[in-house]
Amino acid sequence: MSFRSLVLAEEERIAVITLDRPQEGNALSGELAQELTEACALVSQEDGVWAVVLTATGRSFCTGGDAPFAIEAVVAIEQPVIAAIQGDALGLGLALACACDLRLAAPGACMGVPRPLGHPGGLTQRLPRLVGRGRALEMLLMGDTVDSAQACEYGLVNQVATGGDVTSLAREWARRLVAKAPIAARLAKEAVAKGMDLTLDQGLRLEADLYFLLHTTGDRAEGISAFLSKRPPQFKGD
């Protein structure tokens, strides 16, 4: 499928979604949001994709927009999603980054919330879960931006790309992910996402149930066989 406002590419079990409206700061217009929703659905249904990188062209990752519905499409992707934040992520752009599972940022990239409730986007819910209530309220109410180094200190960003090429770093992380059993990665993501809304006891039961499911997979048998044979595992995602 071809798109007008983004680029979708697959390489070595990795899907790379690149927002491509640099002249508009990659803001989530209706067209871009619709195409992003479609791209997310495509990669989530693709058994050959084991990890996803979300990035953008130009100087901004995403500077806002007026179509928040695409945020939930990113959340719904079953595979681990890495945000490669190569430029500013503001408003809905920050919400888009928060919807990903891992966040990497280029040096100097700024993140912030110009308007506390400019659009829903999930920021009032996801941001506190990442940085804590106090930091989230500071960002939401004061409207100040933080650079990538501060974002890393807050726990909003996992790592800053010291070499400057955050997309290459994201691909490196994605390659590390696809070397692992994909079903286990998906179930770990599910356990964390759902467990955040459960009590500890409920979360532990969920973890036990998902762990039991892993015992039925061929990848588990392959992992054990590879360990005993002292060779790299050859996972197939079944």
Structure in words:
This protein is α/β, with parallel strands linked by helices. The protein folds into 2 domains: 6-178, 2-enoyl-CoA Hydratase, Chain A, domain 1 (Alpha-Beta Complex), CATH 3.90.226.10; 182-229, Lyase 2-enoyl-coa Hydratase, Chain  A, domain 2 (Orthogonal Bundle), CATH 1.10.12. 46% of the residues lie in helices and 17% in strands. A 6-stranded mixed β-sheet has the order 1-2-3-5-7-10, with helices on both faces. It has a 4-stranded mixed β-sheet with strand order 4-6-8-9. Helix 1 links the parallel strand 2 (14-19) and strand 3. Helix 3 (92-98) packs across helix 4 (123-131) and helix 4 packs across helix 5 (133-142). The protein is globular and about 55 Å long. It starts with 5 loop residues before the first strand and ends in a 9-residue tail after the last helix. The mean pLDDT is 91.
Calculate the mean pLDDT score and round it. 91
Q: Tell me, briefly, the overall form.
A: globular
Query: Architecture of the largest domain, according to CATH?
Result: Alpha-Beta Complex
Order of helices and strands: EEHEEHEEHEEHHEHEHHHH
Q: What's the number of helices?
A: 10
Query: In percent, how helical is the residue content?
Result: 40-55%
Describe the largest sheet.
6 strands, mixed
User: What is the name of the CATH class of the largest domain?
Assistant: Alpha Beta
Structural class: alpha/beta
β-strand percent reads 15-25%
Please give the number of β-strands. 10
Radius of gyration: 18 Å
